[in-house]
Amino acid sequence: MAKAETTADEQGSTGDGGPLPVGVKLGSTRTVVALPDGDDNVVIAQDLTCLTTYGNALTGEDEYLYGEEAATMYPDRVEYMLRSGLPEDDERAELASDFFDHYVESLGIPEDSAVVYAVPTIENEAGIENLETVIEDAAIGGTLVRSYPESLCGAIPAVGDDLDAIDEIFLAVNLGSTNLEACAYRHGEQLSPFATGAVSGNEVDRRIANYVEEETQARVNIDGTTAREYKEEHADFGDFSPFTDVIQQPGGGSHEFTIERSVMDAVDEYVDEVVEEVANTFLPDLANDYMRVYQYALSRPVVLTGGMACIPGIVDEFAERLSEELQVEVEAVAPEEPAQAAAVGAQRIANRLVENGAN
Ligand SMILES: Nc1ncnc2c1ncn2[C@@H]1O[C@H](COP(=O)(O)OP(=O)(O)OP(=O)(O)O)[C@@H](O)[C@H]1O
Ligand SMILES: [Mg+2]
Question: What's this model's pTM, rounded to 2 decimal places?
Answer without folding.
Answer: 0.90
